[in-house]
Amino acid sequence: MRQSTEKWLKRYYFIRFAFSAVWVACAFTVARISMPVAALMFIAYPAWDAFANYIDAMQSGGLAKNPSQTFNLVASALTTIAAAVALSFGGAAVLGVFGVWAAVAGALQLATALRRRKTQRAQWTMILSGAQSALAGAFFIKMAEDATAPSIAIFAPYAAFGALYFLISGILLAISERRKNPAYMR
Predict the structure, then answer these.
(1) Which pTM value belongs to this model?
(2) Which of 25, 46, 94, 127 could cross-link 113 (Cys pair, CB 3.0–4.6 Å)?
(3) pLDDT for 153-185, tens place per residue?
């Protein structure tokens, strides 16, 4: 069971990395010059997080066995709607919505990683990622008090660090898998 779960997590972490890396690249290029693209990206990021949490929870025993992911799914889905609404209220609203979401999603990711560390490898990076997300959320909320019209590039470092944490976790699980498989040692 542990090996199949680790194979799933490895693939999941690499997929999460790829999505975030593409999102960051778009944030620094196309979205900087196209407001419609930036708006779509503000909505897509929490929507993707909701979907990813759903798939991960289902692959890891279901929603009932993974309450932190279930709550993260709900929080991210609600944030998707709130992000769409916040766009019509301006930059401070967007920062506030993303701040609350990053704080909540980070705390829930931290809870998931703490639960998983008992049975799965490579969770220390997910623990760091969850904690950093919660702190970034507080930072975004503070920034929202003074914001006028933030660029999507403000969120790109947040997503980039998340991508890095997923990549490191995926690599660590791949290394662990190779060490366990004698065929790779030749």
Answers:
(1) 0.90
(2) 127
(3) 889 999 999 999 999 999 999 998 887 776 655
